[in-house]
Each structure stands twice: as structure tokens, then as C-alpha cells.
Amino acid sequence: MRMIWLRLRRDKGALLGLFLVTVVVLMAIFAPLIAPYDPNAQNLSERRSLPSSEHLMGQDTYGRDIFSRIVYGSRNTLMAGIVCVLIAGVIGSFLGLIAGFYEGKLGNLIMRSMDVVLAYPYFLLAILIVAVLSPGLFNAIVAVSITTIPSYARTVRSNTLVLKNSLFVEAARALGSTNRWIIFKHILPNSMASIIVLSTVGVATAIISTAALSYIGLGAQPPAPEWGLMLSEGRSYLTSAPHISIFSGLSIVLLVLGFNLFGDGLRDVLDPRLK
């Protein structure tokens, strides 16, 4: 870990990404201390008011403080991205391990199932899943997770196909190790670098996808403070009150940029071919 940090801190882009992500994470953790107002408190007499000393980012169409909603919205946005990656990463990695280690009918069945999922445009498939389950942030997370599983399965399967023929795996077999021990104690730990990098970039993709679902009304539902939903609520006032959408859209851009920069830096550090 020390060597990884020493290499990582030489990459200014990765450090910038880590800084942006850290700021949003701290904002989500300490939201009650940072937000000056209740994110759902309405003041209809001051609807769509411009940024001022009292309301740093102005107020939305219901008179709610946009800065407070941005702060609290970081919780929903971050949760959506992280939970999507956790679900897809665990399921996809497990399927990839099984498909790579047990080649044949089982492996082919798993990978052909992944090919079926990949045959559909991922966002259209997510819309279809949410439409079947009913709109909501939780169902949007489930839908995005399902569309992301094949990426992890294919990556881990490729690593498993290489690692299962390695000398240390052959030595483990010679010592009497079971297949389960080899998979979870030897192959999985040696695939973690690829999984970590894919997960870091995957959080950014999941954030964009869930925000897009909220934007079209299939994700978070009003009055929840969620950046994609806030962006949607201001689209009718882009000419008269653009600040309603600008700050939520800028928040999404900065958070996604942070995860992408940090993910690229991790890839450069963890990939032995780039050292």
C-alpha cells in the first residue's frame, strides 16, 4: 500500500480526482452540519431566486435552498454509484471466476448469458428493467447493476483463464488444495487489481446512469434531493433561472471527473505492464 501511494501521488490527475471524491464523500457524511437549511423546506414567495449571501446557489422552483439540496443529494448520488458497483462487482466477479475456472458447459452457459445482456444497449435495458419494477431510486440501482454485471464477469474470467494455469496454482494443486481454495485464496486475490480499477471507473458510470434515470423520471422521485432529479426539475427554467440546473449538473460533472481521474491513476499504478 505504501508503494502504491508513492506511485499514485506522482500523478497529479489522480490526486485531483482523489481530492474531488474526498470532498463529496465528506460532504455526504457531514451533510447535517454543512447544509444551512432543510433540503425540503419550501418558501414559495422566493421561488427561483438567484444566488445570494443567504442562499449561495439560489432557490429552486419551490423555493428550496439549492445548496442544501446539493449537499444532501450527494448522499443519494454517492450511494447509487457505490451500491451499483458493489452488487455488480460481487455477482459479476463470482460468475467470472466460475466461468473461467470451470470451462465447458457451465462456463459457456454463464458467458452466453452475459452476451445476451450485452446485446441490448445498456441504458435501454436499464429503462426496461425499471419500467417493469416501477420507478424509484432502489429499482434504478438494481437496473444499472444488472447492466454492469457482464463487464466484471468478462474481466475476471479473462484473468482466471490466465491464472489457473500459473505455476503457483499448479503448486497449490500438488499440495492438495481444493478448487474452492484455489479460486478464492489464489485466483481472486490476484484479480483484485483489475476489479478495483474497474470498480473505481464503474462508480462514475453508475452515477451517470442513475442520474439519467432520475432525469427522465424513472429514478429518484420528488421531493428527494438527488442530483439527476434536480437537474430535471430545472430544465423548464433554463432561460429564466438557469442556476437551478447548473449547480446540480456541475456537481455530477465534478464527481464523475474525480472518479475517472482517480481510476485512471489506479490503473497506471496497479497494472504491471505500465510500471
Count of separate structural domains: 1
Distance between the termini: 15 Å
Number of strands: 0
- In round numbers, the mean pLDDT is 90
What is the CATH topology descriptor?
MetI-like fold
What's the number of helices?
11
Helix-strand topology string: HHHHHHHHHHH
Largest sheet: none
Strand content: under 5%
**Assigned CATH superfamily:** MetI-like
- Shape assignment: elongated
Counting helices, strands and paired strands, the structural category is mainly alpha
**Share of helical residues:** over 70%
Radius of gyration, whole Å: 22 Å
Q: Which key features would you list for this structure?
A:
MetI-like fold, 275 residues, mainly alpha, elongated, 11 helices
Question: Can you describe what's shown?
Answer:
The structure is a single chain. This protein has eleven helices and no strands. It is an all-alpha fold and about 280 residues long. The chain has a single domain, classed as MetI-like (MetI-like fold).
Helix and strand topology:
Elements: H1 2-8, H2 12-29, H3 31-34, H4 66-101, H5 105-118, H6 122-133, H7 137-163, H8 167-174, H9 179-215, H10 227-233, H11 243-270
At a glance:
The protein is 72% helix and 0% strand.
